Each structure stands twice: as structure tokens, then as C-alpha cells.
Amino acid sequence: MITADAIKIKKTTKSRIPEVDFNDLGFGKVISDHMFVSDYKDGEWNNAHIEPFGDIAFSPSMLALHYGQIVFEGMKAFRTKDGNVSIFRIEKHYERFIKSMERMCMPVMSYRLFEEGLTNLMKVDQAWVPGSEGSALYIRPFAFASEERFGVKISSEYKYIIFSGPVGPYYDKPLRVKIEDHYRRAARGGTGSAKCAGNYGASFYPTHLAKMQGFDQVLWTDGSPELNIEESGTMNVMFVIDGVLVTPPLSDSILDGVTRDSFLTLAHELGIHTQQRTVSALELEAALEKGTLNEAFGTGTAAVAGAIQSIDIKGKDYTVPVPENGVMVKLKNLLTDIRTGKAPDKYSWNTIINCK
Ligand SMILES: *Cc1c(COP(=O)(O)O)cnc(C)c1O
CB count, 10 Å around CB of 256? Predict the structure, then answer.
């Protein structure tokens, strides 16, 4: 069993923090000083350690590059109002990571390894957690098949790495989306509910085509004649129809988003009715025509929530209201307050790293 003492820590001799402009972080550009690494070999996860972030060497025959056994997580840590660091919903992310690993036939790791990897890395890189409004430290745990051999097989060796990087506020303008009625992100029985790299690779081309047509993102459907809505780009999708917060139910073609789950919980707290049920393009079209679609938005760790300002259904463009203090904004604000310690953490979502 791995313990905190067993995690060897080799710190950088030259932090890159002085080179970083924390007022111009952008998203996904800046990477913190250290990374956590563990290797799976001979049936065990071992060699847990923290080292300076840097390149790794591998053989071109490494299995992940050929057959795609790669899974990842996207999480965030926040600077709390009293100066500590708070990591959001480690357990929920762990459960999903394990599910993704199982679906990709990869050996799961203990909660302890996942949790201690994260908390120890956050202790070492705590200075990288930004404090300005809307900013956070984005954390990327991922695992891949590292056996060097090109014959098709389930890898017997894996590498697990966690690195992080500070990100600024994600002020995106409301999105213009189209219902994608040809390409699909995920199929029933496929890998849509696993956070695996291949799902992203497969979504790029249809998204690129939509962008060429002037849209920001696509609304994925289940490919049925009813065009039941599944997700929005790389986010879960929510609609406010006649005052009720509606989101498609989880299935093996929908990713179980931590933000989705958190929003549903917080909606109850705010007295907003919620429904997890099928939403078809037809229903959306009718609601748009009657004016009962009050809001539409995506949810995900990166942006937290992103408003949708228009939906194209089979070539017809409908405008969606983007209220200034609607359901999305209320939920986003409450979530931010919980994560930064401004609102009580009733659901024990935060893991606090004491920075004194
Ligand atoms: C990661 C992801 C989401 C959002 O999940 P969060 O846990 O809220 O970040 C939604 N859809 C897909 C396809 C994803 O990969």
C-alpha cells in the first residue's frame, strides 16, 4: 500500500512561477512546476513519486499510441477566501476515472493512490493556485498503455501522471450551436461514458465542419429519428423549459459530468425543479416556437457553464434567451461560492490543503 511517506518528492531547483503573468493565463497554456507519476508493472501500481514537470521518453511502439488505451480526468483546485487550497470532488472524479479505466480494460488504482497523488502534488505546487476571481488550477490526471510492443493486445504496463496549470476566467460569449444530425459522438454500447482520449479525436472533424458553417459547437444526438439530445460539444447540456431544469439522463453514451451532478444537487437547494429525461429536437423546436425554452447551456469543469444563444435545427436557426440572472448564472455563482469557501460546503465536496 502506498502512503504519503512512500511518495518520493524531488523538487525543482528553479521554479517557473516568476515567468508567469497571472493576469494573462488563458486556458491550457501554463503548466505548474511538478508532476506526480506512478507506473503499473507486474500487476501493481508502484514507483509513486513527484518530480519536476518535463518530457518523458518512450518507444514509438508504445501501445497507447497505436491502440488508444488512454483515459483522463479534468479537475480543479481553488484558492479559498482564507488563503488555503481546495480541491473539488476528488471522490466523484475518482469513481469516474475507475469507470473509464475499466471500460478501456486498464488496471484500476486504489482511491488512496489517486487521492494522495493529488493532495501531495497540490501541497508541492500550492503557489500555482491563482486567487483572482474566476481563476483556478486545472488538474489533469491521466493514464495510458506504456508497454513497448506493437502487436495488438491489452497492455500489461501503464503510466499514471498528474500535472496541473493555472487558468484564468473562461469568459466565452454565448455559443451558437447546431443539432448534429449525421455524425455521432458516442453510440449505445460504445465508449461515450468513458473519459477516453479517442472520444475527443472522433469529435474533432464534425466540430470542425460545424465551425466552418459559423457555429461554435454541435449538439450531439443519439442518432435516432427523434434526434434525442445527448451533449453539447465536450460538455453536458441543460435546458430550462417552462421553469424546469431538464437534462438528458445518464447512459453509456453520455459522460457523467461532475458539474452536471453538482448543478442538479444545487438546483434542489435553490428550489428549482429538475428532470433527467429524454429531450428530442422536436420538443426543443416546439418549445422554441412557443417561447417556453427559457435557457440552454453546457456544463463542464473547464468553463463551469456556457450559455447557448442559438440552436440550429435542420437548417433553421432559433434564438435562445440568455438571461443575466437566470438559472445558469445562479447555479454557477453558488458553485463558485462553495468552492472558494464563501458558501458552506454542505455536501463535503472540498478537500482543503492547509497553506499556513
Ligand atoms: C469531461 C466531459 C464532460 C464534463 O464533465 P465535468 O466532470 O463536468 O467536467 C462532459 N462531456 C464530455 C464528453 C466530457 O468529456
Answer: 17
**Spatial contact of 335 and 262, defined as CB atoms under 8 Å apart:** yes
Residue 187 in contact with residue 223, Cβ under 8 Å? yes
Atom 11 of ligand 1: nearest residue by CA position:
235
- To the question of pTM greater than 0.90 for the whole model, the response is yes
Q: Looking at the domain that runs over 4-169, which CATH code has it been given?
A: 3.30.470.10
DSSP bridge pairs for 241? 244, 293
180 lines ligand 1 (CB under 6 A): no
Contact (Cβ atoms closer than 8 angstroms) between residue 51 and residue 37: yes
The domain 175-339 having CATH identifier 3.20.10.10: the answer here is yes
Would you give the DSSP letter of residue 280? B
Which regions of the chain carry the CATH code 3.30.470.10?
4-169
Task: Report the separation in Å between the CA atom of 231 and the middle of ligand 1, taken as the mean of its atom positions.
Answer: 9
Question: pLDDT digits over 109-120, tens only?
Answer: 999 999 999 999
Q: Which of 229, 92, 232 lies closest to 172, judged by CA?
A: 232
* Torsion sign across C-alpha atoms 301, 302, 307, 310: negative
Distance 37 CA to ligand 1 centre (A): 23
Q: 273-300 pLDDT, tens per residue?
A: 999 999 999 999 999 999 999 999 999 9
Our mutation pick for probing the ligand 1 site, out of 142, 234, 331, 339, counting the most ligand atoms within 8 A of Cβ, is 234
